[in-house]
Amino acid sequence: MRKLTLGLVQMCMSDSMQSNLDHALALIGSASEKGAEVVCLPELFTTRYFAQYEGEEQEELGLACRDTIPGKATRALAAMARKSNITLIGGSIYESDIDRTYNTSTVFSNKGKMLGKYRKTHIPQDQYYFEKEYFEPGDTGFKVFETDQAKIASLICYDQWYPEAARCCALLGADVIFYPTAIGTVKGIQQTEGNWHRAWENVMRGHAIANSLVVAAVNRSGIEDRMRFWGGSFVIDAFGKTLKRAGGKEEVVICDIDLDHGMEVRDGWRFFRNRRPECYGEIVEPLRK
Length: 289
Description:
Radius of gyration: 18 Å
CATH topology: Nitrilase/N-carbamoyl-D-aminoacid amidohydrolase
Order of helices and strands: EHEHEHEEEEEEHEEHEEEEEEH
Low-confidence stretches: none
Largest sheet: 8 strands, mixed
Helix content: 25-40%
Structural class: alpha/beta
Oligomer: single chain
Shape: globular
Number of helices: 6
CATH superfamily: Carbon-nitrogen hydrolase
């Protein structure tokens, strides 16, 4: 059994980017003290969820929340990874890159080296999730980072709804997929389709089973204007069993996983050996109207 201990930092955010960064560093330290070897933060952890705003509020908020890579946040995360001797997935930040902006996750080794970054591929544009007003679609492609402990991938929030993203990461060799997330309910918007929270967790359970790997979702919590983030960060094993699930409040989740279990599932059920790639052309074709 190749055991690995994950730390999921479910946190609330304030109006101060510096306070959020300091708070995140403290919670990372707490996860490390509790034995976590790989720690992950939520999506856009340095700010409140500004993408719920559009129009006149948009430009001012956007300028205030941006950071570069390397920049203030990534330098602090690199130092913390080195100090705590952990692999660190830096949730995501609002990255400014010359004249373009992205929703970007960074990954650091236990030596404090940035192993790389992933820019969110799928960008939503829903009521109070106006992310296309802020972020360009990611241009990095899907990434798997080889660490001392495991091969890990970091997808971001809305990527959760796309089985293609998880499958690509699995084909690239990922043992674990992390999903830094900012999701919850919106005041005044009814869940007419059904229970959003249940669907959110269930779609990722399917990704874990279909790809024979561990999935860890790291959500934010708390109320931010119209948004009530439900927390509920969780870890699901390679056959869909929920190993740990957080409540609705801020907390650090510690979870042991078995990396060999995924290979046992994959070898036993032969999901990958029995693939028929020659039949999947429709997946990469544009939507027919």
